[in-house]
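Q: Protein A?
A:
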Amino acid sequence: MAKSKGTKLIPLGDRVVVQRDEAETTTAGGIVLPDSAKNKPQRGKVIAVGEGHVRRDGKKIALTVKEGDSVLFTSYAGEEIKVGDGEFLLLRESDILATF
């Protein structure tokens, strides 16, 4: 469950809360990048997971990812949200490409 100063963020169903990794601040050659030139990383850490997929017969199937997993996701995946002082990404498990 994502927490930020008393606020809880609990994803529903097959949704996952991810905290995106920080963007690189310098290039390999040592050039400092301004905020406008930084690419948002497509990787992060799973902070919270929903209860799972619901099948047609009503049974729930647990998600493959779990809290603490490091994941790669598509560049336009999910919704960016702010909870308290924290910034998170809320996406579906199907938007996650891999764990590492």
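Q: Protein B?
A:
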Amino acid sequence: MAGDNEAKMEKTVNSLKEEYNTIRTGRASASIFDKVRVDYYGTPTPLSQVGTISIPEARLVVVSPFDKSLISAIEKAIQTADLGLNPSNDGKVIRIAIPPLTADRRKELVKQAKNTAENYRTTIRNIRRDGNDALKKQQKGGELTEDQLKTETDKLQKLTDKYIEEINKVYEAKEKEIME
């Protein structure tokens, strides 16, 4: 029972980490392009499947398309992905300079990260609630004694505390990364 809830909570934390990877900081990172989809012959395709993403410098990303005819489609996809980036191409590769973040933009990103973390904390609490409901049903059905119910509920609460703490750590690390 507890293992099932723990697996759900673990997935929740991993999902938060993936979502945070797509939040742009002042440093170049290939993961900020994870949600970019390129129109590849009518099919929205992840950028990483139509070209190589490299980071030659701290504030520069270079995309080398596998198929040179896709260069304008890739450029358009990056512009419309709402990342606040302006790609430029030389006919062979696309260069994307990562501008330093303004103080206001940093505050905005921290606020966004904070809201996201709160949504994930709520998800953890919902898993706890569902787990508690299931335990109460088991107790009503005679599968658990009153003492077993208390023990299992306490375990679930400890699990919840552990994963909420983990979400807090992930958020604090992202906040620090955005503000540096």
